[in-house]
Structures are given as C-alpha cells and as structure tokens.
C-alpha cells in the first residue's frame, strides 16, 4: 500500500511512502514457517536420538529412515526459508518512497534493496520527462494492479508495491491524484 502525505504545506511536493517487506503478512509467514520447520527438525532429531525432544510426539511412532530423515530435511529447508523472510524484514527490502518535487523539478524514486553495493536504489528524473501515468490492471488467478510512471523515451517505472493488489477504487484514486498533481495524462483506465 502507498501511504500519501505532503511533506510541506505548499502543493509543490508530494511524497508517497512504500511499505516494502515490513508487512503483517511477512511477519506472520516468517513466524509460522519458523515454528513449523522447528517442529519438523526436532521430530527428525528425536527419531534419530531415540528421545522425545517434543513432549507431544512419540519418537517410537517415527522411524529415522525414511520418515525422520525426510522430516529433518524439510525442517532445515523451512528454517532456511524462514531466515530469508526474517532477513528481508530486518533489511526493509522494498521500503522507500516516491517523491514528486515541483519546486526543484525532480522526481525521486527511492527503495532499499538487499545488502551489497546496490543496496540503495535511488532514481532521479526531471519532471519534464514524465509523459503520463499508466495503470495496468490484470485480473485472474494472479491479479496485478500497478501504477507506472511513463517517461519520454524510457521504460515504465512501477510506483506501487508488489504483493496484495489494491482495490480498483484505490488504484484509480491514487493514479488520478498523481496525474492531476503532475498535470499529465492518465492511461489504462
């Protein structure tokens, strides 16, 4: 979701905050996967050691080969995936802002990426290069509702977050407000 607020009292600057990976659903899935994977791994280890590491599971019911081995494998994979999710949350991957500054005549799109030399993704363009605001609506099994900034002679730059799609009303309102603010045309609706 993009949360909009004006950084100044004047109508010359608009800044939209992009949440990124610090969403409730990521916290939820990272926790669920961690606890599930820990249970699988402890069950596999219990079957190998011949001792109950989890009080509610009897190791005698599970042979180490093949059930305990497979459960240990799934537990390790789950812990790796859970660690990945927790690290993306910790690093705030995808978080940033879209700033439209009429005062300086610039558009700045900033996002945090994964650690490394390209951790900071910071794009700046002159406002004069904006051709239009484009809205892409794809319905179906994996719906996609995205607002793009279309620049003259360049590619479309996505402005909305990836994840759960916004409602049609929300995306129309945000795109129309942005097009009005930038005084450009709106495509795709």
UniProtKB/TrEMBL annotation:
<protein>
    <recommendedName>
        <fullName>Photosystem I assembly protein Ycf4</fullName>
    </recommendedName>
</protein>
<keyword id="KW-0793">Thylakoid</keyword>
<comment type="similarity">
    <text>Belongs to the Ycf4 family.</text>
</comment>
<keyword id="KW-1133">Transmembrane helix</keyword>
<feature type="transmembrane region" description="Helical">
    <location>
        <begin position="27"/>
        <end position="49"/>
    </location>
</feature>
<dbReference type="GO" id="GO:0009535">
    <property type="term" value="C:chloroplast thylakoid membrane"/>
</dbReference>
<dbReference type="InterPro" id="IPR003359">
    <property type="entry name" value="PSI_Ycf4_assembly"/>
</dbReference>
<keyword id="KW-0934">Plastid</keyword>
<dbReference type="GO" id="GO:0015979">
    <property type="term" value="P:photosynthesis"/>
</dbReference>
<keyword id="KW-0602">Photosynthesis</keyword>
<dbReference type="GO" id="GO:0009522">
    <property type="term" value="C:photosystem I"/>
</dbReference>
<keyword id="KW-0812">Transmembrane</keyword>
<feature type="transmembrane region" description="Helical">
    <location>
        <begin position="69"/>
        <end position="93"/>
    </location>
</feature>
<keyword id="KW-0472">Membrane</keyword>
<keyword id="KW-0150">Chloroplast</keyword>
<dbReference type="Pfam" id="PF02392">
    <property type="entry name" value="Ycf4"/>
</dbReference>
<comment type="function">
    <text>Seems to be required for the assembly of the photosystem I complex.</text>
</comment>
